[in-house]
Design goal:
239 residues, alpha/beta, 8 strands
Length: 239
């Protein structure tokens, strides 16, 4: 979906104390940039930040890094987050512009991320060759292993049945164990559930929301590069 250009977004973000533009210089230093110690959660593809805003406000003891690729969409995220906090400046969130495909350049093992959130990412179902662009593909999951702490979690939500079924295999071959699985989140009683604009839209259409919590475990046998289309020389942190 093409995002409409918003002339106001970049100026507002440039003036925002909790915005960072492609901050690869913070690799390995993310925990030290927040004024208060707490768990570190990273949201990959925060979109307009509707659910992010509520999550950040409700959990002041947790530090969040919310990432998306364009200032146009992050401008909305900033407005939604700031709206939740009113006149106060939130101290437990950074919104970041970056291409998640190269996330390894943004975080390192030293960051020891506690949780990664992937909500309603592009399912890339148009052509089989596009599958490797998915945020849950082994190409990406192996990168996340580099900076997700031992026993760290990935929380994944989607409306897409093909993406859900394929992702269950992706997590398994990439050394993640399921801790919670549901194919109808709103009927499961799971709480707290922070609802994004996408989740609200799909739920109102009668589409069940799939959710899984996957835990990083030691990876004894890395995914086959030929089967999964992994880049040449790809390796995985076995720990």
């Amino acid at each position: 979906m093409h995002m409409r250009h918003k002339k106001w977004a970049r100026p507002e973000l440039s003036a925002c104390p909790y915005f960072r533009d492609s901050p690869t210089d913070l690799r390995g230093k993310w925990r030290g940039i927040f004024p208060h110690f707490g768990e570190l959660h990273v949201e990959l593809g925060c979109g307009k930040g509707v659910s992010t805003a509520r999550m950040v406000y409700d959990n002041p003891g947790t530090n969040f890094v919310a990432i998306d690729i364009t200032c146009d969409i992050l401008g909305d995220a900033r407005r939604n987050i700031q709206s939740s906090f009113g006149e106060c400046i939130p101290e437990n969130v950074l919104i970041v512009r970056y291409d998640i495909e190269y996330i390894r350049n943004l975080f390192s093992e030293a960051d020891a991320v506690d949780r990664i959130l992937i909500n309603f990412c592009n399912p890339w179902t148009e052509r089989p060759k596009y599958a490797k662009r998915r945020l849950t593909h082994p190409r990406q999951l192996l990168q996340y292993r580099d900076f997700l702490r031992e026993d760290g979690e990935i929380w994944f939500k989607t409306d897409s049945d093909p993406l859900w079924q394929d992702s269950l295999r992706y997590f398994s071959v990439s050394g993640f164990e399921s801790r919670f699985i549901t194919e109808d989140l709103h009927a499961s009683g799971f709480t707290p559930n922070y609802i994004s604009e996408h989740e609200k839209k799909f739920s109102e259409m009668g589409i069940p929301i799939k959710m899984g919590i996957f835990v990083r475990r030691p990876l004894t046998v890395p995914p086959d590069p030929l089967r999964w289309g992994l880049p040449k020389g790809t390796s995985a942190n076995p720990g």
